[in-house]
Amino acid sequence: MSMNKNDLSSRHFQRKISQFCELRIAPISYRRVLEKIHPLLVSLIIYRESPPLLNGHIDWTAITQACGIEAALTAELKKRLQPGLDAIIRWLGATPAAEADSWPGQNGVRQRAAAATSTRKPQRATANGIVAPSESVPRGPTPTDQPFP
């Protein structure tokens, strides 16, 4: 029985993510936290889906809710997880925002991310691709707005 190139790539990357978890996450977290984060990361690879994103950034609320680790998410854990999540996004070769709609949850069960309440305002892309806030606030002239003498 032969494996196709995608299966080999997926298995290899799953091993890399497992090593990442043991080297980066295990030393700073409880074993229980690692045992909840690792399956989520592997399921993202298996289902070839991007981590949940909010306005182009990792949606930490959705990740912690899916893993059930809300109380354990420290600034240090976020800092350590970020490179692994970024690596998954790069491995997918995807435009991150395009794949944030649904993703696998805890233990490989596919579920939609719970709608998280956020105080951040949504942003929209303008015709030239620049992200603009949904509401613009008028501002006065700044030194860079002044013509050169």
What is the approximate shape?
Answer: globular
Q: Supply Rg.
A: 19 Å
Largest beta sheet: strand ordering: 1-2
**Distance from first to last alpha carbon:** 75 Å
Which bin fits the share of residues in helices?
40-55%
Instruction: Name the structural class.
Output: mainly alpha
- Strands, count: 6
* Number of domain modules: 1
Unreliable stretches (pLDDT < 50, length at least 5) are: 95-126, 131-149
Strand count, sense and closure of the main sheet?
Answer: 2 strands, antiparallel
Strand content: 5-15%
Count, helices: 4
Mean pLDDT: 73
What is the N-to-C succession of helices and strands? HHEEHHEEEE
Structural account:
The chain has 149 residues and is mainly alpha-helical. It has helices at residues 5-25, 31-46, 60-67, 75-92, and strands at residues 53-54, 57-58, 103-104, 110-111, 123-125, 131-133. The protein has one domain (5-113, 123-132). Helix 1 runs antiparallel to helix 2 (31-46) and helix 1 (5-25) packs antiparallel against helix 4. The protein is globular, with a radius of gyration of 19 Å. Residues 95-126 and 131-149 have low confidence and may be disordered.
